[in-house]
Amino acid sequence: SQKIEQNSEALNIQEGKTATLTCNYTNYSPAYLQWYRQDPGRGPVFLLLIRENEKEKRKERLKVTFDTTLKQSLFHITASQPADSATYLCARNSGNTPLVFGKGTRLSVIA
Amino acid sequence: DTGVSQDPRHKITKRGQNVTFRCDPISEHNRLYWYRQTLGQGPEFLTYFQNEAQLEKSRLLSDRFSAERPKGSFSTLEIQRTEQGDSAMYLCASTRDRGNDEQFFGPGTRLTVL
Which of A35, A57, A96, B64 is the most buried (most CB within 10 A)? Predict the structure, then answer.
């Protein structure tokens, strides 16, 4: 079965540093990986989508990479701010399959 | 607000009771998804609709769960004979026709079964 693993349950970093979150997948390569942000008590909010034929995608201070050899996606937040503190979810799908989410990584940016 | 809305936001019920949740997707979105999320976990897929057709159901969706989207607009999720293990956040999301598009999530319905 398809699996998504986000190895770190929690990550603490200092304000201004770059946060790097990891997402690993098993079995066949997903066509797409999506990253979402979720604040406590709220639904996830879409951040970025990367296709398997793309190596990197950027949006403002966010960057996502996709390495099909390592079966891994990295999510970076540069110049992190306390407002970036949230849970970040990685999700995979292929074609019309439903999204399969990881457990998420809870990021805390300390001022 | 033109986002996805869910009602109610919170529901407390006693074991054995039936509950029904409603989701109103973004109006031009044809696909509607239901997920369940428990503490410390990511959302788990339950079922989805393309317009009024229910196209896929997860094995998580036991016989006590039923979902409808009668006119291809809003959807309801009903849980019959609730159990304590049903306590979770129930999330609804919508998207356009393509399954790989970003999904827009509602705020969720928090269910507590006593």
Answer: A35
